[in-house]
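Give me C-alpha cells for this 123-residue protein.
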Amino acid sequence: MSYMTDRKRAEGLGSAKSGTDHFWAMTKSSVGLLILVPLFIFTFGSALGGTYEEVVAYYSKPFPAIVAGLTFVVGWVHFKSGAQTMIEDYSHGTARHVAIIAVTCISYAAIAAGLFALVQLAL
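Here you go.
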C-alpha cells in the first residue's frame, strides 16, 4: 500500500515541454519532403538508364545535385525524428537511450555517406 498522493505519483511523468516544437519540426520537414521527393524523382528519372559518364555529367549540374543533397538531408533528419519519437513512446530503460543513440548515429552516417557519394559524383 502506497501513501503517496496522486500528484507525487505523477511527478516526472508529465509533459517534457518539447512536443509542440517537435510537431512543428516534423511538419516542416514533411512539407519539405512533399516538395523535394517529386523533384528528386523527376531529376533522378532523367539520369536513370544512362551510362556512367552521362550520369556524372548530369549530376555535375547544380540543380540535380542540390535537389538530391537536400532530399538526402531532409529525409534522414525526418527519419531520425520520427524514429526517436517511436523509441521514446514504446521502449523504456537503458535500451531506450542506446536505441536513440544508434538511430542518431545511423542517420548522420547515412547523410554523410550520401553527401560524400554525391560530391564524388558531381565533382
